[in-house]
Specification:
The protein has nine helices and no strands. It is mostly helical. The chain is globular and about 60 Å long.
Length: 236
């Protein structure tokens, strides 16, 4: 079943609330720009004043409205990108620039307005809790020479997330810069194809990218990558 079918079920007041709640989770499964769990945390937090989606049908509908609005913007972006690429290919530019595809990579909350700070904080808090509970890589998966680097990256990511949550969505510039270096450090340890350590590193990387995006969102709702992409797109 597609996104639209689940949306109709969420709005169907004849259905039991438990089925409408399950339909919303299925809709999030189809469209989760921050990842499933982070997107769900974002929606639950922004469905104020009663974010209990299991028991409050009004909160359930508010969460659905938020999800649908973001998805509509994402579909418009995809259509605009496809049309622009068609023109560029006809002009001989077969490969898009990195800035052209920045908005397609990593977690991001598309919308007509700035993403909710409360929603992003909730998403980071949920993923931070998961990160802390996720097992640390067994020492048999990496050589002794990598142990200090792995420990430092794990501790740094935990520290940055704690700082972000304590400051209610703010990271100062030096901390933000070192967070970016941490992302690069994790990336450098990921190996092509199947590697047992990748299962841990990729989970760290997903969390690090969400944290970087949340910390980088500006008051106008766009990250530095989005600003660059928008500037390129508006250039004749």
């Amino acid at each position: 079943m597609g996104f639209g079918t689940h949306v109709r079920r969420v709005r169907d007041e004849q259905l039991p609330l438990v089925r409408r709640h399950a339909a919303l989770r299925c809709a999030v499964g189809h469209y989760c720009p921050l990842g499933f769990n982070a997107t769900w945390a974002y929606l639950a937090a922004t469905a104020r004043p009663s974010p209990d989606l299991r028991r409050d049908p009004e909160a359930l509908l508010r969460a659905l409205d938020t999800l649908e609005a973001s998805r509509a913007v994402r579909l418009d972006e995809a259509a605009a990108f496809a049309a622009r690429r068609q023109v560029e290919k006809a002009a001989g530019r077969r490969t898009p620039r990195a800035t052209d595809t920045a908005h397609l990579r990593g977690p991001r909350w598309p919308g007509e307005t700035a993403p909710s700070r409360l929603g992003l904080i909730a998403a980071v808090a949920h993923c931070h809790d998961t990160f802390r509970r996720f097992p640390y890589p067994d020492e048999t998966l990496y050589p002794d020479s990598k142990a200090p680097q792995l420990a430092a990256l794990h501790a740094a990511l935990d520290s940055y997330a704690s700082s972000y949550l304590r400051s209610l969505g703010h990271l100062d510039s030096p901390v933000h810069a070192t967070l970016t270096e941490t992302v690069h450090g994790i990336n450098r340890l990921v190996r092509p194809g199947y590697a047992p350590l990748n299962g841990y590193l990729l989970q760290w990387l997903r969390f690090a990218r969400l944290l970087t995006y949340a910390a980088d969102v500006r008051l106008d709702g766009r990250s530095s990558e989005q600003t660059s992409a928008a500037s390129v797109a508006s250039t004749p």
